[in-house]
Design brief:
The protein is an alpha+beta fold. 22% of the residues lie in helices and 34% in strands. The protein contains eleven helices and 32 strands.
Length: 492
């Protein structure tokens, strides 16, 4: 096996007779413990939380190069255009995107990817990973992957374990029992004895003292045929439902849309529960990658660059006599004084203040918001679309004001509304507006009125983003008051 360099990291290249490894990226989570930044409409994997790149972007970069085939991404159908944009931005335009009609945990997602890959080559290697992990030492990944390739080619299901440095209660654990190969050592491929679900603090502390336990990173390397055989052996219903869902799937632009009826019959269980805890093929590679599953605000404090008082500040933040805090502002000035061990997150429509020791409890707050039917639980003030985004500025009785940004070369659907009229004012860029039989070209500071019921469309023919202010007026201003007649992105 030879080596090449990808973004500063040495990655093993496959031999010519071997098919390239297929990265499988699972992007179905919503990251509720990172609310109010991460929400169902725009979850954490699409945010730049640990670097200048989004988390899914970082994941794609790790799996780019001669060693790898184009990735398979399994995601929620509502995030399809976000994923497609991330693939494009990271040079993975040939990647395949499988759309889940509903969340059914990791077992179903992995089954879908394995079936798709096996259709071309049943023995191809899959490198399966979540879209939301961070590595402080990505340069050490190559050595672990090389060991994983060897073991996976021999029919093992390889997982990657991280040496714990704290009694973490948010991770699962793996207990190992000596090297798989006779001449191996403690850093080589290890036999798996058991998987332990997320423990309480006391049990996690005991395991840390005892030794022999690793954090379960959730990364797997396995031949597609082996994964499918183990699913057939331990939970055939999953394979049956997912296979039927693929057989009745539809191609939607560049997406593979799974059949809803078949997929909804699939059990909602994790791959750890279905396969890894039952199989006799599981092995683990201890990997000192500085891995962190970015699951809550305390994890981001641990990863962040700290000032002399241990604070991590992101955005427009001013701190005075505060210690070991994580403060993030997504816009407005945020001033903090006299606080210790606090996470404070400010967005345009919500503020979260929580002690870092209670970071895992944010999901309980989100559950309360959902029970109260608060839209902030799942929807951002800024809503992303395949053509750009819009965000609410002001809302009152019978009117609301939005900012709309349309990317160069993109256009909205040809549509009309039954309950509202609209007035558009161009702030920057150039707008091509269709209004019934008219085509209007608008420049900065020009405007157009769209009466209730008229057929209209907005397009950016220029080379810079188009920004405009939209004023809506009428008795009902919901987003569902829309009838599409033509859409570039295949939406109904």
């Amino acid at each position: 096996m030879t080596f090449m360099t990808v973004t500063g990291v040495h990655i093993p290249s496959v031999q010519p007779e071997r098919r390239a490894i297929i990265p499988v990226i699972l992007s179905g989570g919503t990251g509720t413990r990172l609310w109010p930044v991460s929400r169902a409409s725009h979850p954490k994997q699409f945010w730049a939380l640990t670097s200048a790149h989004t988390m899914i972007g970082e994941t794609l970069q790790r799996a780019t190069g001669e060693a790898f085939a184009p990735p398979i991404v399994v995601c929620n159908q509502d995030h399809r255009f976000l994923v497609a944009e991330q693939l494009r931005e990271n040079g993975c335009e040939n990647g395949r995107i499988i759309l889940e009609p509903a969340a059914r945990n990791t077992a179903a997602a992995i089954a879908a990817a394995a079936l798709l890959a096996a259709d071309e080559d049943s023995d191809t290697l899959l490198w399966i990973m979540a879209a939301d992990a961070s590595f402080r030492h990505p340069e050490r990944l190559a050595a672990a992957l090389e060991k994983g390739v060897q073991a996976a080619r021999e029919g093992y299901i390889v997982t990657f374990g991280i040496q714990p440095d704290s009694p973490e209660t948010g991770y699962g654990y793996i207990r190992s029992d000596g090297p798989l190969y006779p001449d191996g050592d403690s850093t080589d491929v290890q036999r798996v004895v058991s998987f332990i679900e997320k423990p309480d603090r006391l049990r996690a502390t005991e395991m840390l003292k005892e030794g022999g336990y690793l954090w379960n990173s959730g990364m797997l390397m396995v031949q597609a045929s082996v994964m499918l055989a183990e699913l057939e052996r331990h939970e055939p219903t999953i394979l049956e439902c997912v296979r039927a869902s693929l057989e009745h799937s539809q191609n939607d632009l560049t997406f593979r849309r799974l059949d809803t009826e078949s997929f909804l019959r699939c059990p909602n269980v994790s791959i750890d529960y279905v396969v890894m805890e039952r199989t006799d093929r599981a092995v683990v590679i201890p990997a000192d990658l500085g891995w962190t599953h970015v699951g809550n605000w305390n994890a981001l404090w641990e990863l962040g660059d700290k000032d002399v008082r241990g604070n991590v500040a992101v955005g427009d933040v001013v701190l005075e006599q505060s210690h070991n805090c994580y403060v993030r502002s997504e816009g407005m000035l945020t001033a903090v004084a006299g606080l210790t061990d606090v996470a404070l997150i400010v967005t345009s429509d919500a503020v979260l203040a929580i002690h870092r020791d209670y970071a895992q409890d944010v999901s309980a707050l989100v559950a309360q918001l959902k029970a109260s039917r608060r839209p902030e639980a799942e929807i951002h003030n800024r809503c992303y679309r395949p053509w750009g985004f819009y965000e609410g500025l002001i809302q009152g009785e019978r009117f609301q004001v939005k900012r709309i940004v349309v990317y160069p070369g993109q256009k909205l659907s040809l549509q009309k509304h039954f309950h509202r009229a609209e007035h558009w004012v161009v702030v920057s860029g150039t707008a091509m507006v269709t209004r019934d039989e008219e085509n209007l070209l608008l420049q900065e500071n020009e405007s157009v009125y769209l009466p209730l019921g008229c057929m209209h469309r907005l397009e950016n023919p220029g080379r810079i983003p188009l920004t405009l202010i939209e004023v809506q007026s009428g008795p009902y201003l919901g987003e569902d008051d829309i009838v599409r007649f033509e859409d570039t992105y295949g939406r109904q």
